[in-house]
Amino acid sequence: MDLSIVVPLFNEEESLPELMAWIDRVLAGREYEVVFIDDGSRDNSWSVLENLSSQYMAKLKAIKLSHNYGKSAGLQKGFELASGKVVFTMDADLQDSPDEILPMEKMLLDEGLDLVSGWKKKRHDPITKTIPTKLYNWMTRRMSGIKLHDFNCGLKCYRNEVIKAIEVQGEMHRYMPLIAKAAGFDKIGEHVVQHQARKYGVTKFGVERFTNGMLDLMTIVFVQRFGRKPMHLFGLLGTLTFIVSAAIFCYIGGYKLYALNQGIEAKNITEISGFYIALTGMILGSQLFLSGFIAEMVSRTDPSRKDYGVSKTI
């Protein structure tokens, strides 16, 4: 199989026939499959897919999830089914143009890349969506070190071995380049794609996507950097917090003893706010250190700890 196109969908009954016809027209003469993942749609999307399957036969695969799990779950199930040497992801709302498939495939193969991410340089979205998206992309570039302009573009192209080596969960579909890089696939390119105005229905994402996106970014960056060595973070923070707090505590207690020895009037240490700050810091430092120690013990029991993603052998 040359190409697989994975299309997660939720309530997109109107766009599906047009999307499938468009893909078939672009890939005429090529060996390909389109894998539709119906993420618990409540409209007639599944009936439409059943009708399309009789028309396109072996070119169309589809599964229906029991309820709405989210886009990441849909992509993961699609990746499990995809058999093409090159695998695309695409949204079902017709805002991603199938005309970009062949140019992106050529870029992937000619330049020896692992992943090509689409860049919607000119977007047909309201300013309330474009400005937060630019801030989100800027922050992701800064934290990940991957120089992409549009991390959340649904139109992406992968080598098959990439999608088989990664796992997408939660709402981390936005960070596919980061997940691929963490798995050792760091040859990542970017291709400017045409962004279509939405033709049917309404967007399925609300304001919460931006807050969830930031939380997911912090999670994935933390896991990548400290997932195998949590003690390096918690242990360091705990040790520094404890040492600084203990130094403050010793200074306050030491000065009190000095004052008593010299007959100097001094406040009771329980009347000094710094005493409580130091005491709290020592407790917090101890808890951080113990958290790192426990996390280290837990990580050592993880069967995937020794999975370092070997790519070549002789």
Shape, per Cα inertia axes: elongated
CATH 2nd-level architecture of the largest domain: Alpha-Beta Complex
Task: Return the average pLDDT rounded to an integer.
Answer: 86
Q: How many beta-strand segments?
A: 7
Return the CATH class of the largest domain: Alpha Beta
Compute the number of helices. Answer: 10
Summing up helix and strand content along with how strands pair, one would put the structural category as alpha/beta
**C-alpha end-to-end distance:** 27 Å
- Overall structural domain count: 2
Taking the sheet with the most strands, its summary is: 7 strands, mixed
Bin the strand percentage: 5-15%
CATH topology of the largest domain, by name, is Spore Coat Polysaccharide Biosynthesis Protein SpsA, Chain A
Major beta sheet, strand line-up: 3-2-1-4-6-5-7
Helix content: 40-55%
Q: Could you state the order of secondary-structure elements as H and E?
A: EHEHEHEHEHEHHEHHH
Oligomer status: single chain
- Can you tell me the residue ranges where pLDDT is under 50 for at least 5 consecutive residues? 310-314
Q: Radius of gyration from the CA trace?
A: 26 Å
CATH superfamily of the largest domain: Spore Coat Polysaccharide Biosynthesis Protein SpsA, Chain A
